[in-house]
Amino acid sequence: MGKMLWLEAKDMGVAPSNILYGSGATPVIPDYVVPAGAMTGNPLTDPSLYNHTPGASFFQYYPGKQNRNRLYGAILRQAPMQDYNIALSGGGEKGTYAFNIGYSTEDGLLKFTSFDRYSIRSNADSKITSWLKVGESLGITFTKSNGNNSDNNEGSMISEAYRMQPIIPVYDIQGNFAGTKLQVQVMGKTLLLLLLVTRMTSEKTLGNR
What we know:
This protein is of the alpha+beta class. It has a domain at about 80-150. It is built from four helices and seven strands. It has helices spanning about 1-10, 70-75, 155-165, 190-200; strands at about 30-35, 60-65, 80-90, 95-105, 115-125, 135-145, 200-209. The chain has a five-stranded antiparallel beta sheet, with no helix packed on it. A two-stranded antiparallel ribbon has the order 1-2. The longest helix has 11 residues, at about 1-10. The protein starts with a helix and ends with a strand.
C-alpha cells in the first residue's frame, strides 16, 4: 500500500506523505498503526497507557509490521462434510414399501457458516386387484443455513478481507479486536465487523405428497 501511495504521488507530481508511512523518499512500514506511524521507543507506545474501557480515555495499540493482517487466517477454516442415511425397504406380492431418513451437515470455509439438511421420505404401494394398485409418497426436507450467504459479491467476507490494507492487524497488543480506531481511511471490514455479519440464520421446510 505504501509503494502504491508513493507511485501515486509521483504521478501527480507532489511530495509523498502519509500518516502511516512517513514523508521520506520511500515509504517506511511503522512498528505501530495506532499510534499512527509510531516506532518502538516512542513514548506514546508505552503499554501502560493502554485502556480498553469505553469512553474518552479509551486507547488501544495496533502493532504494524510485527503483526501483519491475518484476516484470511482469522475467518477461514477447514470445512468437513458429513452425510448419514438410514433406509428400510421390503414387500411382497401384495405391496412394497421404502423408508429413508437422511441427515447432512457441512461446515463452511468461512467461520460461523454451515449448512444442515434433514430429510424423510417414504413410499408404499398396495396391489388391490390384478388391475388396481394404490400407493403413497411422502417427502419432507428441512434445511438450515448459518452465516453470511452473500455468494461472491462485493459484500462477502472474502471481498471485505482482501480490500483491507495488509498492515492493519487483526488484534491489538492485548488481543482485543483491532481496526476500529484507525487514523487512516481503509477499505474493507475489520474482523469484528466480519464476524458480526456472519451471525445470520435462515431456515426452510419443503414437503410433497
